[in-house]
């Protein structure tokens, strides 16, 4: 079982602290979603002018960067927005090549009031350019079960339109169950053949915020985590089990010093 965590969970940590916690708690990778206040990590010194030093630190620690979690959306509202995402994607593709990272996470995006069929057509058109970058750099884009593309049927349609080995799925195990009301088995039945990577979190229903749920430490909510884990094991999943501790968006949840070791221990107990 390969464990990782995203940097959303430790927004104040420097690189050395991340690496130390990863090694001490038995993680195999760190998934970068922002770094010390900058979401586009290719703009930071650690991943531009100092990237050789960064790579050396990861190599010496025996750690991987299994995925760069971008802000790229497949659905866009304008040509300008599309070009912005194309530039971001190209920058992450270059980092993937340098760090031997196989995946870039992308979102479907919020479509608003537009008809879904029209949104899918825009996504299909945008993917032609985006997948050309993926093929050029020999990396895979992972569409996350998230936002207006949480429902497995919506994700499946995009995959069918794209018909490309360079577009696969990141199963955020939380969102389809909590938001779309899918069982883990339903999600796997539609998307299992394309799932290459997973995000993990736990929660319970709550009326105290607009989302309708409260994030919590693993095992303290009512997500069917053991059931999902056993399903993945049964199906022979070999990818990463990555904690997405959303400290950036939920500042009141536990500190990473608590959440990361707890996650690693919880997952090993399940395994």
From TrEMBL:
Classification of source organism: Bacteria, Bacillati, Bacillota, Bacilli, Bacillales
Stretches of the chain forming a coiled coil according to its record: none
Domain of life, per lineage: Bacteria
Positions of the Xylose isomerase-like TIM barrel domain: 21-269
Protein name (Swiss-Prot/TrEMBL): Fatty-acyl-CoA synthase
InterPro entries for the chain: IolE/XylAMocC-like (IPR050312), Xyl_isomerase-like_sf (IPR036237), Xyl_isomerase-like_TIM-brl (IPR013022)
